[in-house]
Each structure stands twice: as structure tokens, then as C-alpha cells.
């Protein structure tokens, strides 16, 4: 029993001392931390992994979210937070995705990997409009099934379905084509 308590105590001290280590700024290190594959790899990762909520899509929420974290000496990200907020749902999703990106080249100071605080501006993109009224979501498509707005002159198809506030279908999908037929 004493051994288990001792091991747990030592682990707690090790975790606490690790959490209290200084995180350098980029100007304080000889080689700053950077995403493996470059900034474009991190931007691609965020674009693929950030999922905007349905109601944020309906409102076409878009704009800048500034994220911050600490790149650990092992290349993992920790202590992620929001420096500039956009909208709570979108902030939480960007924070979740940023916290998953653990492919960093750690910063170096005096030739040794060190903790470094990083800042990442994430531009949450806009999306084509979704008409959502009384539980029915309506989307408009071109002939090649590209999602567009209702007033776009290239609209060929309209898809309507009953959905909940998460955007999950609750009924059959109906579609309409510009030439008047529907199904």
C-alpha cells in the first residue's frame, strides 16, 4: 500500500513540476516551435477538423478566432485557450480541433527542446446560406450539385427536409428542379 501511495505522490509532483515549467515566447528561443509540415499543414488540419454547428451555419457565422497554446518539448500542444472570441459554439469547436493538433516541432533554446507559447489566428470561413424556418432546412444547388444561395441564378435544385436544431434530419428529403418536376 505504501508503494502505491509513494508512486502516486511522485507522479503528482512530476506532473505539477511539469505544469509549472516556464513557457517561453517565440522571441526568447533560438528556434521557435512550428507545426510539422508548416503553417499550411495546421491550416489544412483545422479546415478539415473544425465542424461549425448547424445554427452557426444558418447564421453564417464567420470571422477570426485567435487561439493560444503551449507546445511541449515532445511536440504536443497543451494549455489551449481562446485569446479572441467569435461565438461560443465556434470558439469551442476551434479550441477542440486546435487541441488535437499534436504534430509540432518543439522550440529550442541552447540546443534543447523547451516549452513555448504559440498563438494561431484561425479564420472561420463563411458558408453558403441555409434557409431554416419552422424546422425545415432548405438548401439550393447548381446542376453540378454545388451548394449556393437561394437568389443565385444558377440554382437548379432545391432540397428541403425537416431537421432538429442540430441539423439532423427528422423527416423525408424532398427536392425540386427548376423545370418544375419534384420528387
Can you give me a brief rundown of this structure?
This protein is an alpha+beta fold and 183 residues long. Helix content is 26%, strand content 31%. The model has no long low-confidence stretch (mean pLDDT 87).
Structure description:
Strands 8, 9, 10, 11 and 12 form a five-stranded antiparallel sheet that branches. About 25% of the residues lie in helices and about 30% in strands. The protein is of the alpha+beta class and about 180 residues long. The N and C termini lie far apart (about 70 Å). It has two domains: about 20-125, TolA/TonB C-terminal domain (2-Layer Sandwich), CATH 3.30.2420; about 130-175, no CATH class. The protein is built from four helices and twelve strands; from the N terminus they run H-E-H-H-E-E-H-E-E-E-E-E-E-E-E-E.
Mean pLDDT: 87
Radius of gyration: 23 Å
Helix content: 25-40%
Strand residues, percent? 25-35%
Instruction: Return residue spans where pLDDT drops below 50 for at least 5 consecutive residues.
Output: none
CATH class of the largest domain: Alpha Beta
Strand/helix succession: HEHHEEHEEEEEEEEE
Distance between the termini: 70 Å
Reported for the largest beta sheet, the result is:
5 strands, antiparallel
Structural class: alpha+beta
User: Could you say how many structural domains there are in total?
Assistant: 2
- The CATH architecture of the largest domain would be 2-Layer Sandwich
Label the overall shape: elongated
Helical segment tally? 4
Number of strands: 12
CATH topology of the largest domain: TolA/TonB C-terminal domain
Amino acid at each position: 500500500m505504501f508503494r502505491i501511495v509513494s508512486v502516486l505522490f511522485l507522479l503528482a509532483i512530476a506532473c505539477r513540476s511539469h505544469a509549472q515549467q516556464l513557457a517561453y515566447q517565440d522571441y526568447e528561443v533560438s528556434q521557435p516551435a512550428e507545426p510539422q509540415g508548416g503553417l499550411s499543414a495546421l491550416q489544412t488540419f483545422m479546415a478539415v477538423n473544425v465542424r461549425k454547428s448547424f445554427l452557426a451555419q444558418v447564421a453564417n457565422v464567420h470571422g477570426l478566432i485567435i487561439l493560444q497554446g503551449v507546445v511541449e518539448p515532445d511536440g504536443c500542444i497543451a494549455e489551449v485557450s481562446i485569446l479572441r472570441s467569435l461565438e461560443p459554439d465556434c470558439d469551442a469547436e476551434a479550441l477542440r480541433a486546435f487541441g488535437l493538433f499534436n504534430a509540432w516541432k518543439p522550440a529550442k533554446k541552447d540546443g534543447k527542446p523547451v516549452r513555448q507559447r504559440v498563438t494561431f489566428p484561425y479564420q472561420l470561413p463563411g458558408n453558403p446560406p441555409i434557409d431554416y424556418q419552422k424546422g425545415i432546412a432548405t438548401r439550393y444547388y447548381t446542376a453540378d450539385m454545388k451548394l449556393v444561395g437561394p437568389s443565385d441564378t444558377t440554382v437548379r435544385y432545391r432540397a428541403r427536409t425537416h431537421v432538429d436544431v442540430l441539423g439532423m434530419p427528422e423527416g423525408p428529403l424532398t427536392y425540386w428542379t427548376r423545370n418544375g418536376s419534384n420528387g
